[in-house]
């Protein structure tokens, strides 16, 4: 739908199920037409209603007196629908009588940071912040993440905002909707403030040296997302050489690869860049820079379990014995590395970055010290950084290590990082197979996909209990996790989709197949479960 330029142009409004736009603690939808079977759900009126819903929620939460106007900062990643949605969000916030501060192209962590910065000259702190992003999803999608100075909003808050938005939208349906220009919009270059804070953090860690990374060659791959700033605004002021960095310019069609540190093509691209440029280190971000990964000078990927091991090693040097909270699909090798080699405690929790962060906060509140919450996806949050999952800050922790190693005469290579993960046992085979639940299958017998999935897990758990070759994990918070044949598997229910992901890690393909066969035998009577991916894997 074209952006309407005057108050007289009234777009046609369709009925909308707002709660379907919820994706855990985010809102996600289709913002651009053109993909078959994916009609636009984040229209301008829907977006405006969501923003007005957030404004109403914020007014209730902050309970300020009438003399002070609340202000909301708005930023976006490189998606092609960003500008249109930013305008609609601004109208929604302004319509509730709040001040709007637009940051333009920004990172998700910077948006949260804007609620903490205290500097009236740049209109900070913001009372609330909205990031317009859909992380690594395709170009036609977009969405929203919301923050206050307490951190990212949780699932219940998002549901509340969407319920308010539905009521505002029904008002549009009843009274008509028109696009009115927002009066109270200001623009600020907040990314300059955020990047200067990152630079200061590295200088401080290196003993206040102006250019602690002088002589280091570090290449950045931003995947045409919002992370291109890291090369020129963070690394270069610290003295690093960044030639060979790639895909730094924002392009919401993502022409080179998906900006996702878990994506094989993305990791191959940054690895190749490191090797071609004989760089000391490579750094890659997702679209909105809340996730990251690295590659050492030999082309070894430092993502997933390796990245968790590396950050854990750094954090445990600073906070000996602390608890590291991770998601559920981390390896057994990582547990033994954290607990036996590093002397920490590994608390393996559930999937979902917000779940992992909230669990670390909960542990601290009951007296168990935790300084790091990190997911295999590359979402990592540190207590010292307000429990914000900031991909750029995570990489700053690595840069600090490089800079301090160099200051103590240990050279300019990435070997200091590689040495930190020495001794991490890694499986020969690691696979994730997705078993889909057919929601139209009669075997559901009127149950929701979630109830059906829970029944599958219950049955698998019971069948494992009587198998002497297999052992259920004594402590487990999600799905059914089982050790056997030198490896392990985890079958769990996806957070949002009718899917049971199955992770298997084993010392050989043969052992992985044995674990797969145990699962296949246990779930075969569930006819609505599509086990084709598993069947293919276990075939001789």
Layout: helices, strands, pairs:
Blueprint: E1 22-23, E2 26-30, H1 44-62, E3 71-76, H2 82-95, E4 99-105, H3 108-113, E5 128-132, E6 141-148, E7 151-152, H4 155-175, E8 185-187, H5 190-205, E9 218-221, H6 229-235, H7 264-276, E10 281-285, E11 292-296, E12 301-302, H8 304-318, E13 323-326, H9 332-341, E14 345-348, H10 353-365, E15 370-374, E16 380-382, E17 388-389, H11 391-407, H12 415-420, E18 429-437, H13 449-465, E19 471-472, E20 480-484, E21 487-491, E22 499-506, H14 509-523, E23 529-530, H15 532-538
Helix pairs in contact: 1-2, 1-4, 5-6, 5-11, 13-14, 14-15
Distance between termini? 52 Å
Number of helices, where a helix is a run of at least 4 consecutive DSSP H or I residues:
15
Q: What proportion of the residues form beta strands (DSSP E)?
A: 15-25%
Q: Please outline the major beta sheet.
A: 8 strands, mixed
Poorly predicted sequence stretches spanning 5 or more consecutive residues: 1-9
Helicity range of the residues? Answer: 25-40%
Output mean pLDDT.
94
Helix/strand-derived category reads alpha+beta
